[in-house]
């Protein structure tokens, strides 16, 4: 099942609205890079663990 993480679920001074979805490892990697480059977090195993714990299952979209 695809995973999703949405910046709107976390407090942010920038009001970021980015949503990332995909396979779990893709989302963790992309969200970690985004958290570091945009939100000023430090790249670490702890950050990746926090992101992984915050992932949600993507709800299927039906046409």
TrEMBL record:
It holds the Pfam family DUF1059. InterPro entries: DUF1059. This is DUF1059 domain-containing protein. It comes from Streptomyces tubercidicus.
């Amino acid at each position: 099942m695809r995973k999703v993480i949405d910046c709107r679920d976390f407090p942010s001074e920038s009001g970021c609205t980015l949503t990332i979805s995909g396979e779990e490892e893709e989302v963790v990697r992309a969200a970690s890079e985004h958290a570091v480059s945009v939100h000023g977090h430090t790249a670490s195993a702890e950050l990746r663990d926090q992101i992984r714990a915050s992932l949600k299952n993507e709800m299927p979209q039906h046409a």
